[in-house]
Design goal:
Strand content: 5-15%
Number of helices: 13
Radius of gyration: 48 Å
Structural class: alpha+beta
Helix content: 40-55%
Length: 429
């Protein structure tokens, strides 16, 4: 009955007919049908003939129809934005990334320009050219694109800036590199909270050939020095493992690697020691070498023969950016150390010891080159033999294949019977 009422309500809702009216109409139709049936049976004189109609009506019991009340319930729909929650999150993430990129890039550019403005006076007073752009045609475009003023600050990337300078006595060229945090990268910025990093400034100066004595040394934190000795060829081949530098008057947190103790004693004067102790917490590394050849050759290098690189006279230092007082200019300290290294001279015994080390390293490199050449020649011979053998395997003429096998057999027998002896010539004095 409930289902019937629901259907009736749905069907007659548009016509304005209620369920009660429909049920009453159906009840009236049923009464009319009953009355018509009774009339027909009465006319024929059936078995109900003689019964009073009032008694018949009184005997009929029709229960009253119950009214059905349906409660109106509103359909609840979810908000439209919940269906696009994924797209909304992606859009918000892209917006945050873009905002962080613009603000981070602007922040790094401001830090780099502030550093240059602070040290521009010292650089201009010591160098003839400071950050000059060599390409005249691209000068205007570079100034507009970088927006760093007069093209003096070169933007390598959004977090790396460099400044070049040249034209000074005792210094062939000067390079200051600012390696800042990747503030423009939101992911790197979040990771920096887990693994903290610092803004770094690296100053590299190169001296002319013959302007430096036999000096190889490095100062810094123990972890940094250990990594440098594993990577740099001069520190790896010439220097001893890191040792505490406290006996030289330096801070207890600093360590030193050098070719000989006399080298460190000759380089570290009172002025340099005072500056390093004051900013020991900011010092990352200080590297002075007259045999600088870069990083160690890779063991998996595809080159057949290792190229012997020409050594350079080089001075390199890395400090954390910021925290240095205005009176203690890092550029001024670097130039002071450069002039001091230029005039430093070792004792005769220290020079002889250093020369022996250099001769030993040169011989080791020559032996390595000779061995690599032999291995490369042997590999070429084996490849040639393999190609000849493959060619004869594909040869259709059996006579040619048989002759080739005979020649190979004779050659192998000659090598067994007459092995090659290495001849050594000796000069008689």
């Amino acid at each position: 009955m409930y289902i019937l009422a629901c259907r009736l309500k749905t069907r007659h809702h548009t016509l304005g007919i209620t369920v009660e009216e429909v049920i009453e109409e159906e009840g009236e139709e049923e009464d009319d049908e009953d009355m018509s049936v009774e009339d027909e049976e009465g006319g024929e004189g059936g078995e109900f003939e003689g019964i009073d109609d009032d008694e018949f009506e009184a005997g009929k019991s029709t229960p009253p129809l119950s009214k059905i009340h349906l409660s109106e319930s509103a359909v609840r729909l979810q908000p439209v934005w919940l269906a696009y929650i994924g797209e909304i999150l992606i859009g918000v993430s892209l917006l945050l990334y873009f905002i962080n990129y613009m603000s981070g890039r602007s922040k790094n550019a401001s830090l780099a320009q502030a550093w240059l403005d602070r040290h521009a006076g010292v650089l201009r007073s010591n160098f003839a050219l400071v950050g000059e752009v060599q390409e005249e045609e691209g000068e205007g475009e570079e100034e507009e694109e970088e927006g760093e003023g007069d093209g003096k600050l070169i933007k390598e990337s959004d977090d790396v800036y460099t400044v070049w300078a040249s034209g000074r006595i005792n210094c062939d060229n000067f390079l200051a590199q600012l390696k800042l945090l990747q503030r423009q990268d939101l992911l790197s910025l979040l990771l920096s909270f887990i693994w903290p990093k610092e803004d770094l400034v690296t100053i590299v100066m190169q001296l002319g050939e013959g302007d430096m004595d036999s000096i190889i040394m490095a100062i810094g934190q123990k972890k940094t020095l250990t990594k440098m000795q594993q990577e740099y060829e001069d520190l790896n081949r010439y220097c001893t493992p890191p040792r505490p530098a406290k006996r030289l008057g330096l801070d207890s947190d600093l360590q030193i690697v050098c070719e000989a103790p006399e080298v460190a004693q000759a380089v570290l004067n009172q002025q340099i020691v005072t500056f390093l102790n004051r900013y020991a917490h900011l010092l990352q590394s200080l590297h002075v070498s007259n045999e600088y050849t870069g990083f160690l050759p890779d063991a998996d290098d595809s080159a057949e023969v290792t190229v012997i690189r020409k050594p350079q006279n080089r001075l390199e230092m890395t400090f954390k950016l910021g925290g240095i007082d205005d009176g203690d200019d890092i550029v001024r300290f670097a130039l002071t150390l450069l002039d001091h290294v230029k005039t430093t001279r070792l004792t005769k015994e220290a020079k002889e010891k250093a020369q022996k080390n250099r001769n030993r390293v040169a011989q080791d490199k020559e032996k390595l080159q000779h061995q690599q050449r032999q291995e490369a020649a042997q590999a070429r011979r084996e490849d040639k033999k393999r190609m000849e053998k493959e060619k004869m395997m594909l040869e259709e003429d059996p006579e040619k294949a048989r002759k080739w096998e005979q020649r190979e057999h004779k050659r192998q027998m000659r090598k067994l019977l007459n092995p090659r002896m290495k001849s050594v010539k000796m000069k008689m004095k």
